[in-house]
Structures are given as structure tokens and as C-alpha cells.
Amino acid sequence: MTDKQTQNKRSNHKENGDFAKGNNLGNRWKKGESGNPNGRRNAYTDLIKEYSFTKINEKERRTIVVSKLFQLAERGDLRAIQFIIERLEGKALERQERTTKSEPIQVMVIDDQLDSK
Known about the structure:
A hairpin with a 2-residue loop joins strand 1 (55-56) and strand 2 (59-60). 0% of the residues are buried. The chain has a domain at 55-90. It is mainly alpha-helical. The chain is 40% helix and 3% strand. The chain is flat, with a radius of gyration of 32 Å. It has a two-stranded antiparallel sheet. The longest helix has 14 residues, at 61-74.
């Protein structure tokens, strides 16, 4: 290919190969339009949700599961208690203390006097 042919095919690019401002080639969607309007589908999530709304003896499965979770917590199951608390209150934040002081670090000096005894 000649340089002129390359320039014609790449007129929508900058010299470094990036797309030039206002590039319309390769854009299938208009500005503000989503390329994936339905979002990512997750088959397992859909199946679990569908299954959880089915009824057994007039109770939905999800009600039965939550009831079992609370029974475990009432018996003292710490994992069940923690799960419930995290769902209600959110996970506890881990805090880290940071300082912005710019003081020099002090280094301890140990005398060699102990070795001379």
C-alpha cells in the first residue's frame, strides 16, 4: 500500500493511531444511547429468583429460607447472626489511621556498652 492509500483509509485517526475527535466510523450508537440496553443477563440469577418465588404449602421459598436463617441465628449460629447484621447494617468499615505530619522519623540508638561488660 502507498502512503496515500494509508492516509485515505485512516483519515479518521490521529497520527499516533488514536481516533480523531468527531470520529463517526465504528460508532453504531448515537450519543447517549446505550450499546447494551438490557444489560448483561445472568442465567443463574434469573433461575434463582424464579425458583425463590415458587410456593410450597402457600409459602414462598424465599420466606422459608429467611425463616430458617433466623432460626439458626436464634440458636446462636454466629455466621447466621453476622449475615443478618451485615444485610441490615452493612459491613463494618475497617479504619486505618493516617498521618500527614512531615516530622522526621526517630531511630533508636542502642549503645554497645552491653557488649563491653
